[in-house]
């Protein structure tokens, strides 16, 4: 069966940022379909170790298929918030690419895309009990507005929340197309950005993404060996703000921040892979001693 693997973002910049060397131990905390992992494995060689982490069972299956020829890979299905209690490792590199993978966006059954009709799911971990359906249909108008403002930075948050409440009084909101229709009716002008922000907001809320990101970055810094490096790729301001703050707080104490301003994809890469356009890469190095 043919598999269309997700195209990894800023691969050369990641390899340079991690400064991967033969024999290194590297944690890829967002394994996805294994694109970055494959490039890292080719740098660290057979004497190195790649530890891949993802909570999406589809990602685990894709990465396992892609990396099956490598014997120096261990793959763990877990939430970032479970790493500290489950992994006992010291690493030379720690990578997080926080973006959605193409195979997640393009699968209508996952509910991540406003452009595809499917169930309002939005879970990365399909075993998690909380879905977007539950949030959209159970939360109060105020709680809905808070999610849209806090996680989507949506200026029409209050109006959208009001219209969700009105619509669900008529019938449950269970499909992506239904939610998208409500958003389109609530905003003025071109609704595309509002649609993206609203779906982002509910996805973040369903998966607890921002709290998990904080936990993961803190853990990544903790497990690095002296001179080990942490690289993060984020795609919107909420994520980038968290990483920037955590790096700044650790700067000059246990970290040396190597990217005072985040790196962004080359013009050529964006032309080849438009989904990379909003990526921001930050790198820091653990101090020696």
Automatic annotation (TrEMBL):
EC number(s) stated in the UniProt entry for this protein: 2.1.1.199
Annotated residues for binding of S-adenosyl-L-methionine: 34-36, 54, 97, 104
GO cellular component: cytoplasm
GO molecular function, one term: rRNA (cytosine-N4-)-methyltransferase activity
Gene from which this protein is expressed: rsmH
Name of the protein this chain belongs to: Ribosomal RNA small subunit methyltransferase H
Keyword field: Cytoplasm, Methyltransferase, rRNA processing, S-adenosyl-L-methionine, Transferase
Main location: cytoplasm
Cellular localisation: Cytoplasm
Domain of life from the UniProt record: Bacteria
Family stated for the protein in its record: Belongs to the methyltransferase superfamily. RsmH family.
Function: Specifically methylates the N4 position of cytidine in position 1402 (C1402) of 16S rRNA.
GO terms of biological process kind: rRNA base methylation
Catalytic activity: cytidine(1402) in 16S rRNA + S-adenosyl-L-methionine = N(4)-methylcytidine(1402) in 16S rRNA + S-adenosyl-L-homocysteine + H(+)
């Amino acid at each position: 069966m043919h598999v269309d693997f997700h195209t990894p973002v800023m691969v050369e910049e990641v390899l340079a940022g991690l400064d991967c060397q033969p024999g290194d131990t590297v944690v890829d905390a967002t394994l996805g379909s294994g694109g970055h992992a494959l490039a890292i494995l080719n740098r660290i060689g057979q004497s190195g170790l790649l530890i891949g982490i993802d909570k999406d069972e589809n990602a685990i299956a894709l990465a396992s298929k892609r990396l099956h020829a490598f014997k120096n890979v261990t793959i763990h299905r877990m939430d970032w918030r479970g790493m500290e209690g489950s992994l006992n490792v010291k690493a030379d590199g720690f990578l997080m690419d926080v973006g959605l993978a193409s195979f997640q966006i393009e699968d209508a059954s996952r509910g991540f895309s406003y452009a595809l009709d499917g169930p309002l799911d939005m879970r990365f971990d399909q075993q998690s009990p909380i879905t977007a359906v539950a949030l959209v249909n159970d939360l109060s108008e105020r709680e809905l507005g808070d999610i849209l403002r806090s996680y989507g930075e949506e200026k029409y948050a209050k109006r959208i929340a009001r219209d969700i409440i009105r619509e669900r009084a008529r019938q449950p909101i269970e499909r992506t197309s239904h939610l998208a229709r409500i958003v389109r009716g609530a905003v003025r002008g071109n609704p595309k950005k509002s649609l993206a922000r609203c779906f982002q907001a509910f996805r973040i809320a369903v998966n607890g993404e921002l709290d998990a990101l904080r936990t993961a970055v803190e853990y990544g810094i903790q497990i690095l060996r002296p001179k080990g490096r942490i690289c993060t790729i984020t795609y919107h301001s909420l994520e980038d703000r968290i990483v920037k703050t955590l790096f700044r707080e650790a700067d000059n104490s246990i970290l040396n921040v190597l990217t005072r301003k985040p790196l962004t994809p080359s013009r050529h890469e964006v032309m080849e892979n438009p989904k990379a356009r909003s990526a921001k890469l930050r790198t820091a190095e653990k101090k020696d001693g």
